[in-house]
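hiii so my PI (J.) wants the whole complex modelled not just the main chain, which honestly fair. so below is everything: two entries, each one labled with what it is. i double checked the lines twice but i was tired so who knows lol
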Amino acid sequence: MNYIEPKTHLADLFGQAVAQVAPGSAIAIELERPKQASHGDYACNAAMQLARALKKNPREVAAQIVAALPASQLVAKTEIAGPGFINVFIKPAAKQALVGHVLAAGADYGRSDLGHGRKVQIEFVSANPTGPLHVGHGRGAAFGASLANCLAFVGYNAYREYYVNDAGRQMDILALSTWLRYLELNGEIVAFPGNAYQGDYVKAMAQAVAELHGGRYKRAAAEVVANAPDAVSDPEGHLDALIANAKALLGPDYAYIHGYALEEQLGDGRNDLTEFGVVFDHWFSERTLHDAGLIDRAVTALQKNGHIYEQNGALWFRSTDFGDEKDRVVKRDNGIYTYFAADIAYHLNKFERGFEQVIDVWGADHHGYISRVKGALKAAGADPDRLTVTLVQFAVLWEGGQKKSMSTRSGQYVTLRELRTEVGNDACRFFYVLRKSDQHLDFDLDLAKSQSNDNPVYYIQYAHARISRVLEAWGGDMADLQDADPTQLSQPQELALLDCLAEFPEICASAAREFSPHLVAYYLKDLAADLHGLYAACQFLVADEALKLARLALIAATRQTLRSGLALLGVSAPDKM
RNA sequence: GCCCUCGUAGCUCAGUGGAUAGAGCAUCCCCCUCCUAAGGGGAGGGUCGCCCGUUCGAUUCGGGCCGAGGGCACCA
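here's the output for the full assembly
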């Protein structure tokens, strides 16, 4: 028997029946999977939805719908139950046929064309390249990558992008920090500002520059701090003055220091993410927006539409017209565009590049920023609904029942690389997406590291490994499993596993539609549990050849589904543990 | 003050406009002569924060309240 996807098929049947019973009604056919087995495989609530309009008792409407239901080779029986549910029982053979279907589809099982190939861009991580990625970035990376995988799996043309803030003040601060450390190495001691970058990686870069170029960038300490405001009373002014002095003293060499620090940190982040299984189609440079005049153009567009005014020497965007609580500066009185202005230009550019939908994955601390950006897009004549911002809350690490506190400022934070080294990429990827993205995540290091059944990653991977070991012990030709007779499968654990396997495509669709890769993680836990249940209840390598092949085919299909699901989350599927 | 998120078992959290609300951990009991026990089976444990509304039906949607966390720069 060829496999027919029951839900789509039933929705079609019910649609025909409802059209006959209640012509012209426009209800959506809803089919749910009842929690209780006695309620069948699918339940339809159409009768209850129609009862009022038809002025009839729902059970009576249900009877009419059932009578009008076209014949189907899938349906074993229907029952009218409770307040008016129509419960549908699927023939075992129709369920069993899934095994051959999954094996034939292979890695494509679960794939769909929900997205119709529409271009969707997911921008994520986008951390300032001013230091190592930390565990907060890790969550955004894991979430964004998994989401992009899900979207691609259900038929979207997913494009992964990292926005590189290579033009702003933060990069200048990094360049300055590196240079000051370099001067230290060359005997020119300048008091290192508390609001400069403190991390050891800055010293490492200074050391490297010193080794590569000796004293070439050495300048007198007194000149570096000349005319700078006091570091205590005006720390930011102090820093800005030092940056200005650095640019003046170094001239064209400043660009070298700046570029060196940028490339170092960007390269480090790229390596880190690649090792984490997170890759991007494009690293978009903020500087190119400036260089191509796109920011001028964006601000001019706003100006033309009458949304810009000047005050105190700065240019303001009247974002209050678009629901923001106060107006925002786009160009400061010193003539420098704000980050906000660059962001407007960047998002307009995204649309111009033809992405029908744009998803931004931001840290939750940016949430106040959403209305501003959307408002600006609207003001510039773009459709803000094409932008979806998904917020990712911070992750808090726990170890030995203690919260690990972090402070970016002092350079004392746990880096993503440290976390990956400590708990492994698989556990990292999985734990990061185990919670809904917009919720605080308690990352339990002890649990992530533990090689026990408490650890859901191992629980799932173990299910996969177990199947591999059985198939290996069998030693037969996998192609033979295609032709196994699935009607041999009748044990409750076998049927439960079949039902679970059948849900995979819908889980993938929901995960993509709701931007919720955690649904895949939970599904995999369920699937693994069903596999372990079957494993404990039934022997696979039995004497009865037909039964053996059927069971092996079932677990081979399960292995494929586990693999596909783990791949969506970027977690490996080991054959041996 | 304004905005966002959350409140479900002792703990950490899923879930859903539907029928008797789930998992893991923790507690207690049981299961390897057998393809990996990194596993399985069972028991106990709940006013889905409170109130009102919408609905044939609300834990789910809307409003209010209470409680928790986070965010509100001429920073990036």
